[in-house]
Amino acid sequence: MESMLNKLKSTVTKVTADMTSAVMGNPVTREFEVGRHIASGGPGMCWRIYNGTKKSTKQEVAVFVFDKKMVEKYQKFDKDQIIESLKRGVQQLTRLRHPRLLTVQHPLEESRDCLAFCTEPVFASLSNVLGQWDNLPSPVPTDIKDYKLYDVETKYGLLQISEGLSFLHSGVKMVHGNLCLENVILNKSGAWKIMGFDFSISSTNPSDAEPKYSCKEWEPNLPPLCLPNPEYLAPEYILSVSCDAASDMYSLGVVMHAVFNEGKPVFQVNKHDIFKSFSRQLDQLSRLSPTMLNKIPEEVREHVKMLLSVTPNVRPDADQMTKVRSPPVSPTMTLCH
Length: 337
Description:
The chain has helices spanning 2-24, 28-31, 76-95, 126-129, 142-145, 151-171, 235-239, 245-259, 274-286, 298-307, 318-322; strands spanning 32-41, 47-54, 60-67, 104-110, 114-119, 122-125, 174-175, 184-187, 192-194, 201-202. The protein has 337 residues and is an alpha+beta fold. InterPro entries: CIK-Related_Protein (IPR051177), Kinase-like_dom_sf (IPR011009), Prot_kinase_dom (IPR000719).
């Protein structure tokens, strides 16, 4: 038993040491101390999230690190595509400033071994708290493993995400393009923030009242990190290569379903035959059975049903979703964990 524990301890120490050495060569460490590995998130859960502090002010931050060893198995072209996609996502997030988007405190830095950037202090991704533990330390931190989302917290969190989408769609004429659990981050105060702008699309005519978005065709041969999460994508992305703000609203509907269903999206997608998967999904969505939504609170169930409509213009917009009011919360409800 003791030798097994020692073996486990040495494995954990080795992984931590490998990651620490990967970060050590990164310019981000000139200004920031990198601490404990606490969470994971972002596209494909590929970013490891660490506690950190700014050396000059002792200000608390989160340090996001992508270890390039994760893409060693790919050919150079694919590797470069993945790195460029991740860099684009962080650079876009850095440019955008809004209380409902994750706040970047230090921009992306690249070294031979990793990409790294710093944000406001973070607790975990929504994926982590709903039981998706990829790229987390072993053993999984107790505060994540034992975390329970209260109803009031969930409803307020979803309102915050709707406000973030409203800013993107109306304020900057942008479609997020990959809204899913791993791209929603809970900060240290429990606020829900959007990240993961790797596949965001800006309007081609931002000054016009009616924005236009140019959607890329799905390329099944690309590495998964070069593609949005298909289980949260609106059907029109895949089947008619079109998208607009309503496509993000479909993704919000899937996020809402997942939050009330232990992290499960509405459909599992066969990534090897995505077109067939989405055609079947379209058929099921057009006759969505009430049992599929029975875990969603009654006061938002009808909205979720509309968000999951196959017809984009039936879906409520982000501004409408910010006005959805839940019944008053019981005074016994608490946000403490």
